């Protein structure tokens, strides 16, 4: 034991020579805990405390900090860390050094060490709002949302007018689908900083899904504050696109590109509404930009899809598929998508209802108003067209693609799996985690009532005055069982379209969201389509006569006949405006926004035949799925 004590004392002495005061203190304290009368440890600790006290009275000068800050700002992170460490040994109680160290570790993606440094900074100074803010930013980055929310709130508590903290807190709430909380955070940022442009943009991004007038106002306000803010012009263009104002949309995209010529996402957005002719200067610029070294993966994806559209307009089939295939390949790489994950999740959803006692909507659940009409099917199957038709009725509000249902279901499943309030799991595919032991509670009246409550709580933000509304989220086909169990008054309209036409339209379209990863590969696309078809067959068998199938091709060939049948199924009286759907001025947030403002078009399901030789692998994999 004596030998061990002497060894520890010797180790403490060596640590002191290296300037590692804290570690030496810990050793002396551990010795005294075991041997309270050890004179050498007692005296050494006493002397050390005197040294620490002297150090505490010393303060870091700006001259000592500036070289470190300059290294960080110039990206010389290793050198900055090398400069910080000796200062930390000399000034172990200086919070700013731990904050700077955390910034360095964060910049090199060493997130755990960054968190340790920021936590140490907040321990040394419990009112260090910047350290709490930086801590929240790292926690958000690695998906620890609850901790990030707490850190941002603490930063705001210390510094109420901390604009970036309010804004980033809003971003977390937005990502989690807590839109009312997000709006409140952005509005706080704006109230403290009326000219804080990014908060106006983030607020507009929420409003753009359901209140385009407010979205326009917020984007325009941001532009008035910072006229050369390219993201604001780009986002304004997407709002004009939703409103069907093509000229204004093009002007906004072009303005964004004038400010930021290498803005790949704006190039792609412009390409979707522009008809290209040979020698257009944008074409040459995009090709040059695509060759730029160190181009971000997402930018490569956007540019390849944009150049594919250029090639399509110019009738160059070979280049069309060269760029289209490369854009899709890169997109799958970017998303790190696995079809197996989706297939497993869908299988688990199906298993919930395999032995379900519910073969009809739960009539014992309370009916709610307004009444929903869910329009489901594969993307690009005609769901936007059908919503435009139904929402042309005077009694119907077209709500567009709402994610309220999926978020509500995910929230309740993750509560069942992990416990209430565990927000960090919202970023994961919880459907893959469902086990047989969970099914009984998930397939229960109480569970479905929570889904209903979550959905209508979210819906309240839309302030719908009509008695009926449409929810046109195509991928809600996955949740038909939940819909019919949680919304007894709901109608479900299922779009069916030629399989090759549907899959081809999906493959050639660049989805900017992350929810359609299967779209980027012929094998994945065919597997997903077969899964979709099998699941819809299962829903029909499980809930016979509760799902209305409508053929896109039949609708385009026999518009009035099919429209009258559709409106009758929806429980609505006839309204002639449903035939003049192209005059409907409602906002359309999908890529079909301009098409649904034109009269019924026939023949789109035959367009893939122009590229049949290039689509042979897809055609063979789809097989006989009609």
Give an overview of the whole structure.
The structure is a single chain. The protein has 626 residues and is mainly alpha-helical. It contains 30 helices and five strands. It has a five-stranded parallel beta sheet. The longest helix has 21 residues. It is globular, with a radius of gyration of 30 Å. The termini are far apart.
Please specify the SSE layout and strand pairing.
Elements: H1 2-17, H2 21-34, H3 39-57, H4 62-73, H5 77-90, H6 95-107, H7 111-124, H8 129-141, H9 145-158, H10 163-175, H11 179-192, H12 197-207, H13 212-225, H14 230-242, H15 246-259, H16 264-271, H17 281-290, H18 297-313, H19 317-335, H20 339-354, E1 371-376, H21 383-391, E2 396-398, H22 404-418, H23 436-442, H24 445-459, E3 468-471, H25 480-486, E4 491-496, H26 499-507, H27 522-542, E5 548-551, H28 552-557, H29 559-569, H30 616-622
Parallel strand pairs: 1-3, 1-4, 2-3, 4-5
Helix pairs in contact: 1-2, 2-3, 4-5, 5-6, 6-7, 6-8, 7-8, 8-9, 9-10, 10-11, 10-12, 11-12, 12-13, 13-14, 14-15, 15-16, 16-18, 17-18, 18-19, 20-27, 22-24, 27-30
């Amino acid at each position: 034991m004596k030998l061990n004590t002497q060894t520890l004392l010797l180790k403490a002495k060596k640590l002191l020579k290296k300037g590692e005061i804290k570690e030496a203190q810990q050793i002396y304290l551990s010795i005294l805990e075991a041997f309270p009368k050890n004179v050498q440890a007692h005296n050494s600790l006493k002397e050390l405390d005197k040294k620490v006290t002297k150090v505490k009275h010393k303060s870091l000068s700006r001259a000592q900090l500036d070289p470190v800050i300059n290294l960080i700002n110039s990206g010389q992170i290793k050198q900055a860390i090398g400069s910080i460490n000796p200062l930390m040994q000399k000034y172990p109680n200086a919070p700013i050094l731990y904050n700077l160290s955390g910034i360095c570790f964060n910049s090199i993606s060493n997130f755990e060490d960054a968190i340790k440094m920021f936590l140490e900074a907040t321990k040394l100074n419990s009112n260090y709002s910047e350290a709490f803010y930086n801590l929240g930013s790292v926690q958000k980055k690695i998906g620890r949302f609850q901790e990030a929310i707490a850190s941002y709130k603490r930063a705001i508590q210390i510094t109420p007018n901390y604009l970036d903290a309010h804004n980033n807190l809003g971003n977390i709430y937005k990502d989690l689908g807590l839109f009312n909380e997000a709006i409140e955070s952005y509005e706080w940022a704006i109230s403290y900083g009326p000219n804080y442009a990014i908060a106006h943009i983030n607020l507009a991004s929420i409003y753009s899904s359901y209140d385009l007038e407010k979205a326009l106002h917020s984007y325009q306000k941001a532009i008035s504050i910072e006229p050369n803010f390219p993201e604001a012009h780009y986002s304004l263009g997407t709002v004009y696109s939703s409103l069907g104002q093509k000229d204004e949309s093009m002007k906004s995209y072009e303005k964004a590109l004038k400010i930021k010529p290498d803005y790949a996402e704006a190039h792609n957005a412009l390409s979707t509404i522009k008809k290209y002719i040979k020698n257009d200067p944008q074409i040459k610029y995009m090709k040059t930009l695509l060759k730029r070294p160190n181009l971000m993966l997402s930018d490569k994806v956007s540019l390849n899809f944009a150049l594919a559209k250029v090639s399509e307009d110019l009738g160059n089939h070979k280049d069309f598929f060269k760029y289209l295939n490369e854009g899709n390949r890169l997109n799958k790489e970017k998303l790190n998508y696995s079809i197996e994950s989706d297939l497993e999740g869908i299988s688990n959803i199906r298993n919930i209802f395999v032995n379900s006692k519910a073969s009809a909507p739960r009539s014992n659940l309370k009916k709610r108003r307004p009444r929903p009409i869910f329009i489901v099917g594969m993307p690009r199957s005609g769901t936007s067209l059908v919503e435009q038709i139904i929402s042309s009725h005077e009694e119907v509000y077209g709500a567009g693609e709402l994610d309220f249902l999926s978020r509500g279901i995910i929230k309740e499943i993750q509560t069942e799996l992990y416990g209430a309030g565990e927000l960090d799991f919202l970023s994961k595919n919880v459907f893959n985690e469902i086990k047989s032991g969970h099914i009984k509670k998930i397939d229960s009246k109480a569970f479905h009532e929570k889904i209903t409550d979550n959905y209508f709580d979210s819906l309240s933000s839309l302030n719908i005055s009509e008695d009926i509304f449409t929810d046109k989220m195509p991928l809600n086909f996955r949740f038909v069982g939940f819909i019919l169990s949680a919304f007894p008054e709901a109608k479900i309209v299922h779009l069916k379209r030629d399989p090759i036409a549907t899959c081809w339209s999906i493959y050639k379209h660049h989805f900017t969201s992350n929810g359609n990863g299967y779209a980027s590969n012929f094998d994945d696309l065919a597997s997903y389509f077969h899964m979709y078809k099998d699941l819809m067959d299962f829903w029909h068998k499980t809930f016979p006569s509760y799902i209305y199938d409508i053929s896109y091709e039949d609708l385009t060939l026999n518009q009035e006949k099919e429209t009258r049948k559709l409106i009758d199924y929806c429980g609505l009286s006839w309204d002639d405006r449903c035939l003049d759907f192209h005059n409907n001025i409602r906002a359309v947030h999908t890529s079909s926004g301009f098409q649904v403002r034109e009269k019924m078009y026939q023949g789109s399901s035959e367009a893939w035949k122009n590229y049949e030789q290039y689509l042979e692998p897809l055609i063979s994999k789809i097989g006989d799925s009609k």
